Amino acid sequence: MKTPNYIVHGAGGIGCVIASRLASMGRKVQLVARGPHLQALQTQGLTVTQNTEGTWKLPAEASAHELDVDNQTIVLLAMKTDDTFGAIEQHSSLYRDLPLVSFQNGVTNEEWLSQKGFTTYGCTVMVGAEITEPGNVRHSGGKLLEVGKWPSGNDLTSDALVADLNESGMDASVDERVIDGKWGKLVRNLANAYLALTDLSVQEASCDPLDRQFIADVNEEAADVLELAEISARMIGKRDLREQIARLREPGFWPARPAVTETTRSYPSTWQDLALRRERVEVDHFNGAIVRLGEKFHSPTPLNRVLRDRCVLAARNLTLPGSETSDSLRSAAL
To answer: Which domain holds residue 241?
Structure first.
């Protein structure tokens, strides 16, 4: 394909990191955002710190209908899953013939887009980022991006996107079975609700054996039901899911590496949602997906159910992180 240009629809933390990287190597990048963050992007530009550094003045609007779109535009979706459906319906005529790439967690987005007949791609995202204040994003870590057609395959669009991402300094690759990678990331995200409810950072989550045991049990529920459903979940790294569960069950306190500081500490988006009292969380597309598979294949998933239900309730009640412990969650699952 000719030189692509990009719309990042849902220019939050991760979307802004991707946008800034692509803009830094000369690509035309436009943003769709909302609220005070949009106002700051329009007035003062986008500033990214830590693992990406710089300030960019990029076109930003509340709707892509107000942006410059042509047949070389690739749309990168980076909003929360529950915001995808309305956003796409509002842009259906504009996006109908454009490639849509889900830089989102879970598999709901790609499944829904594909069913609606859109040209759909998935991306497994291993990037940490957060909006620290409107217009300012901290890239806390990670550069890994795996892109492919949904549910499998590769073409010139995914090749071009991966080439641009690599030139921008990200660690991108083509994944011809992106569905497997997205299910693997979904399993990884099953711990997000636990971290949010118990107020743990990503770096702290593997330190205490009680926390690791809880996460291992949550993952084992997923491993059991995914096997029954004949779904392949490819994990990042050398270990498969069962091996990762066994590793989490190893005894002893593991010190955080690197040591947890204000600059190294990062939190999953679910924790950020509770901390910012956003009223909604994505956990029904993570833990809830495992619960629904468990119901279909008659495999118990009590811990995933409790994490989903308690986290959704915490968001609805504007409860800050730290309302639960591993013991309180286990008791609720009995």
So the answer is: 184-333
